[in-house]
Amino acid sequence: MMSKQAFICSLGSLYLSLLFVFLLMDVYARPANNSSLKEKAVDSKDENGILPPDHLNGVKMEMDGHFNKEFHQEVFLGKEMEEFDEDSEPRRNRRKLMVIFSKVDINRDKKISAQEMQRWIMEKTEEHFQEAVEENKLHFRAVDPDGDGHVSWDEYKIKFLASKGFNEKEVAEKVKNNEELKIDEETQEVLDNLKDRWYQADNPPADLLLNEEEFLSFLHPEHSRGMLKFMVKEIVRDLDQDGDKKLTLSEFISLPVGTVENQQAQDIDDDWVKDRKKEFEEVIDANHDGIVTMEELEEYMDPMNEYNALNEAKQMIAVADENQNHHLELEEILKYSEYFTGSKLMDYARNVHEEF
């Protein structure tokens, strides 16, 4: 018969054995190449970064002609936009909003004028510009592996196709030997559009080599007046139905918005048309002649246009100016927080009283 001491020792050995087995199971359950997966994810992000984004922070319209739905939040919050999450603690968001209010209110009269809001919008837009410059440095290094400070169209094409799943070494070899690349029609169309954009970003003297500054214009046309013109031409080309290089209201609101399957979808489509019609008639069509020219659209698209910033400031104030004094008080901004931050703050009046 086993002694009590021997039985305890036996249990201890069994426990250690089971613990060892569980540790082994945990080790083998993890991906063996966990670190390489992370590196691959980072690389993938870098590769996506070499493509001109459709969405440009601080610009009112996307590259495809759609409105930037987050524009108001971007020019009011700047880089702090990500901090205002729907799931964030409301009291924390209120305090952040109060801090922003105090920064906009330069003369400390506890209300924000159109001029103060204009200055703030320009400052936040510049903030987005600087963020794009920093990101561009990383993306430029990704397409300039030899570090000579210039990237040729062929070098970029190789990186672009690699980001689309093509074998980079095979593509590079074919490009080097001027061999035909077997590319699907959709990818080829994108590549052709990118090549046009590449040529536009290549400042005189044209050498088909982009330096870091030119590459920034390629990815972010809002940084270059010439590229801004090119982006406007692309938008007009996509919307202009009669080929006169101008936009009528009917052309501007004719972008496909999806298949309407039910009343809710119909309401969304109706709101979309209403928003575009209002923007066309009240803002973009500067001389109100019912036609938007390339020049008018260019002025509208220019994020560093001070007149546009003042006009935007007045519109933002009008949205929440309940007492009609043409200024914004803190209570008004908190009440309309969803418009300014994308985050709705509940029981704003009671909480404002508590904060004060």
Report on the structure:
- With 356 residues, the protein is mainly α.
- Helices cover 62% and strands 2% of the residues.
- It is built from 17 helices and 4 strands.
- It has helices at 4-29, 34-48, 71-77, 90-104, 114-143, 153-163, 168-176, 185-201, 212-219, 225-239, 249-252, 263-284, 294-301, 306-320, 330-335, 337-341, 348-355; strands at residues 151-152, 209-210, 247-248, 291-292.
- The strands form 2 sheets. The chain has a two-stranded antiparallel sheet with strand order 1-2. Strands 3-4 form a two-stranded antiparallel sheet.
- Helix 6 runs antiparallel to helix 7.
- The protein starts with a helix and ends with a helix.
- Its main location: Golgi.
- It comes from Sphenodon punctatus.
- This is 45 kDa calcium-binding protein.
Summarize the model shown.
The protein is mostly helical. Helix content is about 60%, strand content about 0%.
Sequence-ordered SSE layout with sheet pairings:
Elements: H1 4-29, H2 34-48, H3 71-77, H4 90-104, H5 114-143, E1 151-152, H6 153-163, H7 168-176, H8 185-201, E2 209-210, H9 212-219, H10 225-239, E3 247-248, H11 249-252, H12 263-284, E4 291-292, H13 294-301, H14 306-320, H15 330-335, H16 337-341, H17 348-355
Antiparallel strand pairs: 1-2, 3-4
Helix pairs in contact: 3-5, 5-9, 5-14, 6-7, 8-9, 10-13
